Request: fold
Amino acid sequence: MIELAPVLPQGEHELFHSARQLCPSRAIRVRDDRIGEGLPFETEPVPWYARGRWLRDSQMRPATFLNYGIADYYIQDAGSLLPVALLDPKPGEWILDLCAAPGGKASAILEAMQGIGVLVANETIRSRLDSLHYMLARTGHANYIVANQDPEDLSQALSGRFDAVLVDAPCSGQMLVARDKRDESAWSQKQILHSAKRQNRILDAAVRMLKPGGRLIYSTCTFALEEDEEQISRLATNWPDRFEPIESQGLGAWQSPLAKGCYRLWPHRDRCAGGFAGGLVLKDSAPEWEEEGSSGGGKRFAKGKGLRGHPKEERDLLQSIAPVGDLSGDLEFRLWNGELSLASPDVWRLLDRFHWLGTPMTAAFRKGTRWLPSHALAMLRPTWFQPKQWVELDSDRASVYLRGEVVPLRGDSPDLDAGAGSVARRVEAEGDGWRVARWRNCPMGWVKGVSNRWNNHLPTWAVMNSIEDPS
Reply:
């Protein structure tokens, strides 16, 4: 069993060991533009993060409500909000989430940036990229890149570029044992030391990508000192002239007794599985990072040829999707790596220089000989995109849609709203065409109207198999 005495009073050890075996209270993060909307269940505030909420009834399943389908909230353990609170992301910053999947923290960062700046959400495990794309699309923003790169390779190419780097590191996962996502071997010294060694490598790459004045936020889901405070202390010791701890007044109640700039949550105190976050800021006066003496630490990236498609093909494609909707911000479409992508000017500026880095938001993709609009395009906020046509579904038909089924026409009233100030018309009068399906004026995805029904184009990974009775 791990050593707790330096960070937890002896009198609490028994309470801790009892609480760590229990599943924590369910929690959500309310989307920033939906704070005033009513939720389908009662909640209580999470004190360390303003938009965090605990469900009063933990038997509730928040992923089964229509509100989840329209992205009113995100489901994540309250402890995982601690590093986002310490990071305190701001509009206009360039931020790297180095270990981003499944995307809970990355999506919180993207919301806080309000569509301004750049988020690079990196995930080394390719199979986890789809969930990351989905979570970022639910924010309704397009100022992000999803990357699938090794941290050392990124550090060689992107040294000194980011205002902040978040490392939610792979760890022994002791906080996940109660939810059966780890077994009791997470508490073994062998597993702890193995994880700490891997964390050393990731953190050493992460710090090199900070600008002077940039912030490193490090978090884990483990209680082991070797993976928590000792990692922050190791960086400060190895580079004593470079870093200062981030001391957050708002998080003072959770300050670690062992190290400045480190914060802890406990299952017996804080109604969550636990949490650790530590922060360092790179001094403005810090010297330049020394060049690594060998090329063996990772692959080298040449500028090479860009991934942008042929200009004529791009123009033809933009013309073909023009009936779908209009951009209403400063976003730009490009044919990029075989897909029509949409991103902010800062994202394109970064990708113009580092073509290999990753993938911006997909706006349309090819299926056979046809181009189809993406789910992410439908989910964009009105600030960035205005669909030409939409259909407002009642609760029953919204449930049908989110289950991935064909949506029937409603026989007793108009189904199609052609835009603000326009007369609503039946789909039969309109013929075939793409529409954004909405519930309570919020987008859920695309439908395509044919004769007597709406064909459902909700991606399989966005389908909700179980939905609470909306009545």
The radius of gyration is 24 Å. DSSP finds 14 helices and 25 strands in the chain. The CA atoms of residues 300 and 318 lie 34 Å apart. The domain at 10-24+77-282 is CATH 3.40.50.150 (Rossmann fold).
